[in-house]
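The passage that follows is intended for readers who have already worked through the single-chain material. We present the inputs for a multi-component assembly, then the predicted structure in tokenized form, and finally a short commentary. You are encouraged to pause after the input and sketch how you expect the pieces to fit together before reading on.
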Amino acid sequence: MNYKQLVSNIKQKKSFLCVGLDTDYNMLPKFLMETEYPVFEFNKRIVDETAKYVVAYKPNMAFYEILGAAGWINLLMTINYIRERYPDIFIIADAKRSDIGNTSKMYAKAFLGEMNFDAITVNPYMGEDSVTPFLSFENKWVILLALTSNSGASDFQFIKDNETDQKLFELVLRKSQAWGNRENMMYVVGATKAEMLADIRKIVPEHFLLIPGVGAQGGNLEEVAKYGINKQCGLLVNSSRNIIYADATNIFAKVAGEKAYEMQKEMEILLQKYKVI
Amino acid sequence: MNYKQLVSNIKQKKSFLCVGLDTDYNMLPKFLMETEYPVFEFNKRIVDETAKYVVAYKPNMAFYEILGAAGWINLLMTINYIRERYPDIFIIADAKRSDIGNTSKMYAKAFLGEMNFDAITVNPYMGEDSVTPFLSFENKWVILLALTSNSGASDFQFIKDNETDQKLFELVLRKSQAWGNRENMMYVVGATKAEMLADIRKIVPEHFLLIPGVGAQGGNLEEVAKYGINKQCGLLVNSSRNIIYADATNIFAKVAGEKAYEMQKEMEILLQKYKVI
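Having made your guess, compare it with the prediction:
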């Protein structure tokens, strides 16, 4: 999916919601455990109830890798299901991969080629040649970690470079703009301190930002929009547990749909307020 | 495997060689392509010919993920085969994972629990809570990226922190010593400039260092030992392509065995020179 299509989907659906398909096998409703592909069955039901309110899904690889080969099969079934039924949805592999150039090329082929994700999250620690192999696929995206939402973010991401007087995550934002552009690169920016988005927007005014942690991790949607939104929206806001685990009974998918609808409604108001639509 | 056992294996085998099982499906000898599990068959033959000269194997996940569920099956077969036939071998998942605490816990369970690797490479960018979940498994190890051997290493790993006047990779070495110890944590240190190992040894005198890039990536074994070896060896030196792709015909495994033997002999001389054995 290209930039124009993504923006168009946001405007049409009046939503910049991304739902994290972090499907924990141990938290599945019991009646699904009797099916052959319980993780896929869970995802399928969540997708069917939420698809009209979301522009993106983001399965986190850890939740599939823990199931080994079966996890990959459930994941592929999920991707294929979304592609067939809801072709306007952007699908992100939350994989946080990165390796030396030749090896990153293999990961890129796996996720953006074989598995046909639209985007993959990438860790910047290893620098340019670990990131650029993911940028050579047409209409596919790198979502580079800049500022993460976890407590450990303060260990290294805020150290200030002697030479440029910039913090590490700011350097990541600046340097990587030479590797890609707003058409093939986004950034993960943790929303625990939404006012930081104002400074980040000075460095990357046009790029999409993927904001994790609105919901269970404590971010606030209004604040995020206030400081982070741009003329084309430029935001994907992720919610995982607050939506997919809103209910643990047989009506979990219906309740997830209601939660997604609530968020879409909030987003619609914000998109209007900031004149994106 | 614990620290004592690893050191004992190194002394007994007179080797600190790690072989990277970066098995590229497209580079397999033709006769293996007709088998049901060609990647496993390749690995099995490599392992049988090299096991007596090596203390560790390190499959890189990218080469398996590109094959989807089949890749995971071939990987698991490889791990199980090594465990059964050569129980004294240390097996490293070169996965370079890291995520927020809860998700890192899932990766840890997958690699150190379910798949029963001895160790996993971890990316430090997301800080403490992304690393510590991997440290809660008895006799299992984190191998934290500090200084990598690729060209992109210079983008961020060398920025100098205003406050402490230390480079990012040095901060990673220092801070992480509060998270683990020499019994459960090693560091990836690129060998492209071996003399840097002397400074690194001042920060982490006792920890094991995993040195990639001796061989195809241009490092030099004698220099690595000169600057990096400690009283208990403290080194695992990896070679991948130089060994597993030394020959592309039906005798590839035999040639790989000869290459591993050559490296073991060099290592034996160095272990004697530096009085480890």
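Commentary: The two ends of chain A are 21 Å apart (CA to CA). Chain A touches chain B through 59 residues (CB under 8 Å). How closely did your sketch match?
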